[in-house]
Amino acid sequence: xxxxxxxxxNKVFRRLTSNAFIAVxxxxxxxxxxxxxxxxxxxxxxxxxxxxKQPALGTKQPVSSTKQFAVGAERYSKYLPxxxxxxxxxxxxxxxxxxSHSALPSSTVEPEERESxxxxxxxxxxxxxxxxxxxxxxxxLQRSVNVVSIMxxxxxxxxxKGAGEKVDSNIDAKTGLPIxxxxxxxxxxxxxxxxxxxxxxxxxxxxxVRFYTYLSTLxxxxxxxxxRNIDVIVLDRPNPNGRYVDGPVLxxxxxxxxxxxxxxxxxxxxxxxxxxxxxxxQWLDIDVSSYDNAKLxxxxxxxxxxxxxxxxxxxxxxxxxxxxxxxxxxxxxxxEGTDVSIGRGTxxxxxxxxxxxxxxxxxxxxxxxxxxxxxxxxxxxxxxAHVFTHATPINSESxxxxxxxxxxxxxxxxxxxxxxxxxxxxxxxxxxxxxxxGTEETFFTRPDFFDKLAGTDALRFQIQTGKTPxxxxxxxxxxxxxxxxxxxxxxxxxxxx
Length: 497
Hints:
By secondary structure, the protein is α/β, with parallel strands linked by helices. 28% of the residues lie in helices and 12% in strands. Strands 1-12-9-8-2-5-7-6 form an 8-stranded mixed beta sheet, with helices on both faces.
């Protein structure tokens, strides 16, 4: 019989007693030979600063720009004529929102025809989501557009499904329209789904990171539509991480649904721009002749430039509840391939990093299954967490005792140093365990998944061999420069370079 060391006994004891603690804390006109069109060229808006406080998305948000822009969906005069007399399918989720004042059928003036107001009162009147926004589906039905079906991506039509959770096809209770899942039995629209469809309208908010799966859904929608001669209209929305172009460019052998294209982790493009690139570079798995049989139209955001801050009016997915989580997502998502928690199953998803035994901070955070994370990493344990500045609990009332949140500097773009530091913490912890005969903790618990996130296995090997952040970044530059040059033909908004 094996005799446990005192350190192993202590480790087992902590696993067994964690439940007791839980109970206490109870996404320029470009005309291409492949039939890519944009509705017009827009002028940029004034640059604004980052918002420091991070309330939950969908609640009252701070004003970050003195000039109001209109998302593509709100520019009805640019795309409604393309829908007249057509049978339309919408690829949307809860983020396909339009301002209520611009969604009324009686309104004869489109948002882009109004003068921009610098009045603070005017800005504040546009903020409250529940009163000032409505879903695109409702707005189009009010305009007598013949919407015949809905297709929904990962997280579902309502955006309430957890990451990787299967989404079933259904019927919309409000309209009676069929909802076809693109994250269940298939991730690509089937011939049956597209039967009788003339036009597909795509309107989903992206967060500007390659492994966020809405881009892959857009790819498959374009692929299926062009193969069947169905036109696609992409109603563009801002990229909240549009200031950054960073990270390794995906290598083809690491292609998957969380990365299908030779672009960097942070590409600095909107889904409308990427749609043009996917079609223009002929990345779709279709016959070359099929590119001439259908048309892609992108309706740009008016008065927008990619360097300005954009606070999303609604959470794009369950575990990105606020601006801070979206800002941290490009870096923290890499931890999904490791044993480090990024807060799924806590009140701070994508706002912390932690582990039950390896210490990342002094804050104790309980992990429990919830609707956004049915099977979270380290479920029913207590994390030693590093919680980031301005972290905001998504459901503070669920905590009998609110954790004491400590101050840490937030991340801008992609911070490789955070990954290196975490790997070092595991190494130091394991060295201590090894000296006493204890069982070591594995950092890269899902190495294949980590490599898919990175789009290469080089990053993992660089971390393991002790490369510095500067050395790792330098290894990306040649491919990043090539990408920046290639993407110029597809940009709709002022470049950041």
